[in-house]
Amino acid sequence: MLYLNFCAGTLLCEPKMRYNNRVYRFTLGVPDMKKLTLVVASVFAVSMAGAGTVDRIVAKINDEIITLSELRREMEPMRQEIMSKVPAAQQEQTLKAMEEQVLDSIIVAALIYQKAIEMEYNAYVEDDVSSYIQQIMKDNNFADTDEFENALAQQGQSMRTFRESIEKHMVSQALVEAFIGSRISLLTPEIERYYQNNQADFSTPEEVTLSEIILDVAKGVSEAESLAADIADRVRRGESFAELAGKYSKGATAAKGGGIGTYVIDKLNEETRKALVGVGEGEISAAQKSAEGLVIIRVDVRKPTTVQPLDEVKDEIRDILYRQKRNPEYERFIKQLKEDAYIQIFPEMQ
Fold it and tell me: Domain of 339?
């Protein structure tokens, strides 16, 4: 079986699992339409655990069997990562736990597909599969079917098995949509309530662009304070802050008119935030003592916090709420499939 890395449609591909912050998907995956990323994981199935290892059944789901080679093939991407990143003393235990999760994912995928076939979701899928393949070819600039088949062959795949993978995905997703998606309703008040309760997630924080003049206090703080008051008065009368910074500032920013950059105001240090309270765009702060000297800060630009309108984020919120509602529905759906099926897991999978 070819591991095909893609998740199509509005639903999350299932089953899936996470290891080391990476999501691994099984059985239901089909190729990325844009990149056509085909990850072949069949080499492990050939060699197995070593020369002379005999393949055998590790699980039975109704009339379908899962072999050790199939399980290890699905395990291969994670096995390699575990072997390279997990301490040797923990590898066996980690691999065992991961193997159990992978096997469960394979079982779930089989149950979904079996149910889909039982309910004849595959009856009218051929045209959709063909259209999908045509779109893949178009997106990846394949001149014709022969060129596409050659690309598949280079990845150890055939058109027949490729079509089967896509068909399996589409049929399974159609079943999941019918049994889960149809049960989920999203009302406008829910979307509006989520928006009101989570506006920080849809906001751009307040930003300020600042310039500074750092006055030397080596000759005395009072002398520096007197100069600061004079500079503030001259700025208010219209003199250029940048020119005054070039003339009086001892900081490294003096050569560029005192400019120090743009910052999210909440991420500035506490002393600077306090100094900028009530200071509008084009205004200067009171002189503040710092480790470098006496500092005058000018607010060159002040961008207030902005919140995206609900209409702009409605679809994003709908997706968030859909996922929140979908997960428990999916778990109930899979639980029922398992209860209705005959599942036998054979011991000693190693």
Answer: 3-187+317-345
